Structure formats: structure tokens, C-alpha cells
Amino acid sequence: MTRAGLAGSTVSIVTGAARRPSGYSQDVDWSLFGCARKGHVTYAPDEPALRDRLMAPTAGGTAWRCLRCGAFVIGGEHGSGPAAEAPMVRRGKELRSELILRVFAVERFLRFLVFGGAAYGVWRFKYDRAGIQQAYNNALPAIRDLYRDLGFDVNHSKLLGLIQHAFTLNSRVLTYLAIGLAVYALIELVECVGLWLGKRWGEYFAMVATSIFLPYEIYDLTLKITWLRLTAFVINLLLVIYLVWTKRLFGVRGGKRAYEARLRSESIIEVEQAALAAASASQAPGRSRQDHAAPGKTGPGDSPAPA
Ligand SMILES: [Zn+2]
User: Fold this and answer.
1) Cα of 70 to ligand 1 centre, how many Å?
2) In this structure, are 76 and 6 located in the same domain?
3) Most buried residue, 68, 94, 97, 112, by CB count within 10 Å?
């Protein structure tokens, strides 16, 4: 590529970025990824000037600007109405955040399965202790042989010790244990749903419920450090910090108002409105019509660059 060619492509990238909210260029893949998964979101606002900026007549039909990835796509608009009622679509970093929370949601679902299964096992055990003990006693010689073949002493097995201890627990303790495990499993399930849907209540619920168990997890680690405990603790701690910081829970970093203001400032409609206001303020009335007809081009007063 020639030097002139390089310079030319750079100019076009900068021009494109100037129309977009800050941080757009580094997050462009997330918006494209979101559109690949969910399809483009286009909207025809009632305001004629704004409408002109979001559409472009092409040979194949009218192209509308996607509110998520910013590309002009051909096809009928999905919705129309006042600009204020345009759908709020998650873009850039927000899409990345959505994906991160879904990874946490999957982890919570695995916890739900493990603890739900444990609750069910304890409950079954409570009602069929004799049968299970019988089966255990029958299997014990085979388990003993297996341990010996593997080179372990069965008397030192923690798992078998735990099972034998369980046979000594009374029915009431088993009931409490089953209820405790079931409640914890349900909490994990609610967290999973809330994080997966990306709802504010879900973020609050996950943050509060996870925090409640942190002191116990720290206490548990002071007794003995195992990889399982340490991993579970680190995951929970990261989730709490991530939620409070990025979702601005409990008024952190301006709270909900600041969070929504940032979402709005990143929306394509808001950016175009700001650009329109800037353009009409700085340009002579006679020239503005010409500018609106070419939404792909950028005027001098066209870079609002919200911080
Ligand atoms: Zn799109």
C-alpha cells in the first residue's frame, strides 16, 4: 500500500470515529458481535432532520442506521416514533459486560445443580437411611478392595468418614441440612436468572446475596485453604466488585442516574441529536439541508465527542 493510500484510510477511520461515542473504535467488535447474535436494530424517528441522518437512499432501497453497530442496513425499519422513545440498545462495553455477567450466571447455575442435588440426596437419605446404609455396608468390601488396590488406607478416607458420620446424624439435623442446601440452591438460581437477564434487580440481588456469604467464606479459608474454597471465594469477590463498580450499585460512581446517563450518551440517536444541534448552531441555514442529505459525511461541527 502506498503512503497516500495509508493516509487516506486513516482519515476515513478518524472521520468515522468522530461521529461515534468515545470508546467506540476499541469496542466495535462487541457491537458487531451483538448484531450478529441478535440482528440489527433500526428505528425511524419522527423528527425529520434526525430521520434524515439515520437513513440513506441506496440503489437497493432505503438503508437505516443500526442503533447498535452504527452500520447502514437495508431493510424496513423495526420501529418508528419520537426519538425519545427509541429503544435503548446495549452497545460496545455494555455488550461485553452482558457477556461477562452471563458467564457468572452459568457458574451460578452449576452451583444450583450441585447444591440442589445435595439437598435432594440428603432428603432421600433421611427417608431411606436403612436402605442406603444396607447398600453402603454391602458395597464396603468392594470399596475396601478398591482403596487397597489404589494404595490407600480405607481408614484414612475423608469421604468414607463423612458418609459414616452421616449415618450417625439424627433426623432433625438432616432436615435442617436439606433445607439449608435447598435455600442456598434457590438463591443461586435466582442470581443466575437475574444475571442472565441483565436486570438491575438481578444485579442487586446477586451482589447482596453473594456478599452475605463472603464473611463465612473468609472464616472457612482461615480454617483450611483448599483450591475449591479459594476459587469459589475469588469468583464471588470478583462478582461483587464488578457489579458495584460497573453497574454503579448503591450510588457508587453516581449510581443509577449516572449509569443510565452513560447508556444514553452512548446511544446512536443521542449522538446524532447532539451532532444535529451542533451542526445547526454552527452552520448557516442554507447549508444544513445539503448536509442532511448525506448522512455518511461529516460536517465541521459534527463531533460531539461526549466524555
Ligand atoms: Zn447492527
Assistant:
1) 6
2) yes
3) 68
Give the distance (Å) from ligand 1 centre to CA of residue 83. Answer: 18
- Note whether 203 and 147 are same-domain residues: no
Closest CA to 16 of 72, 58, 57: 72
Q: How far is the CA of 73 from the centre of ligand 1 (A)?
A: 8
Residue 166 lies in domain: 104-186
- How far is ligand 1, taken at its centre, from the CA of residue 86, in Å? 15
Helices and strands of the chain, counted as H and E runs? 12, 5
Q: 10 CA distance to ligand 1 centroid (A)?
A: 23
CA atoms of 118 and 51, how far apart (whole Å): 57
Distance, CA 34 to ligand 1 centroid (Å)?
8
Would you give per-residue pLDDT tens digits along the chain (307 residues)? 333 333 333 223 333 333 444 444 454 578 888 888 888 888 888 888 888 888 888 888 888 989 888 888 887 667 888 888 888 888 888 888 888 999 999 999 999 999 999 999 899 888 888 888 888 888 888 888 888 888 877 777 777 788 888 888 888 998 999 999 999 999 999 999 999 998 889 999 999 999 999 999 999 999 989 999 999 999 999 999 999 998 889 888 888 888 888 887 788 888 888 888 888 777 655 444 444 444 444 444 444 444 3
In a domain, 64, yes or no: yes
217 Cα: distance to centroid of ligand 1 (angstroms): 43
The DSSP secondary structure of 200-220, one letter per residue, reads HHHHHHHHHHHHHHHHHHHHH
CA 191 – ligand 1 centroid, Å = 29
Provide the phi-psi class of 182: left if phi over 0, else alpha when psi is between -120 and 50, else beta. Answer: alpha
Residues 151 and 214 reside in one and the same domain: no
In what helix (H) or strand (E) does residue 304 lie, and over which residues does it extend?
none
Measured in angstroms, how far is the CA atom of residue 59 from the centroid of ligand 1?
20
